[in-house]
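Problem 12. The chain below contains 603 residues. Write out its predicted structure in token notation.
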Amino acid sequence: MTENMQLQGDCAPADSSLPSSNPVAAAALPEGFVRLGLAPELVQAVADLGYTQPTAVQEKAIPLAMGAADEAGRFIDLMVSSQTGSGKTAAFLLPVLHTLIQQQADADAAARAEFERAAAEAAARGEAPPKRKRKNPTHPRNFKAATPGALVLCPTRELAQQVAHDAIELVKHCKGLRIANVVGGMPYQLQIARLQNANLVVATPGRLLDLQRSMQIKLDQVQFLVVDEADRMLDLGFSDDLAEINQLTAQRKQTMMFSATFAPRIQQLAMRVMHEGGASVKKVQIDTPQEKHANIKQMLYWADNAQHKRKLLDHWLRDASIGQAIVFASTQVECDGLANDLQQDGFSAVALHGALSQGLRNRRLMALRSGQVQILVATDVAARGIDVPSITHVFNFGLPMKAEDYTHRIGRTGRAGRDGLAVTFAEFRDRRKIFDIEGYSRQQFKAEVVAGLEPTQRFPQGGRPDFGGRGREGGRGREQRFGGGGRGHGDRDRGGFGDRAGFGDRGGFGGGRRDGDGYGRKSGFGETPRFSETSRFGDAPRFSEASRFSETSRFGRGEGAAPRGDFGRKAEFARGGFAKPQGAGKPFTPHDARKRPAPRGGR
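Solution.
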């Protein structure tokens, strides 16, 4: 986003282009948005952007968001779930801006009536009418803390900038309605100046709270709170900030939450932010998990290792049909390394992740939007908020930590009804993550292969592990994980939680691998040792069959305590564990008194 677009929130009037004064323009207005009852200025802005009909989520959410619940003026709280690229941003911006425009028109009318009354009184007294004084808000003497009427919270800076850009485009036919964007990594003084007289603020929580604590912005007049990508905002990383903002805006009239995914746990957390604990919240769900991303073709390629994935990615990136692409990596180090490798191979690629400065992130995003960069290698910081129509492919080089993040990643392509392609590269150790993604989306991947780059590893017994019964590769057996023993996750050959897993009478975490990875076969908190015969540290056990706290140990039933630091024949990590007491029931004596040398000057 350019600096000019951020600064143009205060819009000049354009009465000649409004539908009420231009019948020709009114004939070309999108009838679908007119039926929704939006302000003429917003309808004209939507027409300028080239949209003719509202999407499904806009058709359902906008009337609910605009309608008052009762005579007291309270609005309906909303929780809206719809796939990425379906128009959720306009679904909450349009009703909020519509209400702000109406309130501003009422305030202007009241101010005009007051001025006319004062002028009439002055004329009756034979005095000159009062003059309208306009103060310069940037002058320090006239500085006042910003008091916005609407607040939009976003989890990432890129998403906040995208939402602010869309809001500025929608108010370009309005007069005096200002949009401010507050994100971290930008100069404070510049953002403070932009906050002056702002009606709608789009912010990330951290920088917003910094400005609030320094008294640069007050949130006690916020009427509408919108949480975009609410599943991420309600997660642990933002929960404290969101709770503080919830208290600072406790007087608000409406709360709206929008996201592509709402897990059950996230829905429970969302109810705490709604009015009356979510008693009157209205839920709108447009797409079921089976219907999500119907216009995006999803492909899976199994790889033996990272080098194999790199060859598969190189094969795909040389496809001439690729317009622009995003390659998602798991870590920042992997992101930088992969971008450098692609640059050396002749691709126009840049990296984008959270460790970069905000100025550099903005420049690289602008290069992507302007077509100067073909491939963006990014972490999940780019999984939300990037709306570039020319992105045709999304590659998952590294898998996401959460299954729902996969939905947001592939949603960077195929936006606004376009077709897209999402390609995932996975190693065989990533099978669990692939199965989680399939379970979340309720769509099963069909593995593809590239001629000459086929994987050498194969799934045993037809390609999929058995997660039930007493199969060799994990799952829960007939005896439950938390039962009195039984088979847990994994087995003796493939790690995980094995033969005696669970919190039964034979310990907590059992059945590690017999090849030296994991924990012993009868480990845990039971009668047998915590680390036993087939321990992690080789053939000899770390702690022997007489466990650390056995009956002859320091805290046991014996009279004395075994030594802790003897590294001789009975050392701590020897086969016998801690050295045994020297004698049954006899207290340990460090030196034999008979061998002690006589003191000088003795007998």
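Discussion. The domain at 20-110+147-285 is CATH 3.40.50.300 (Rossmann fold). Students who got a different answer should revisit the alignment rule from Section 12.3.
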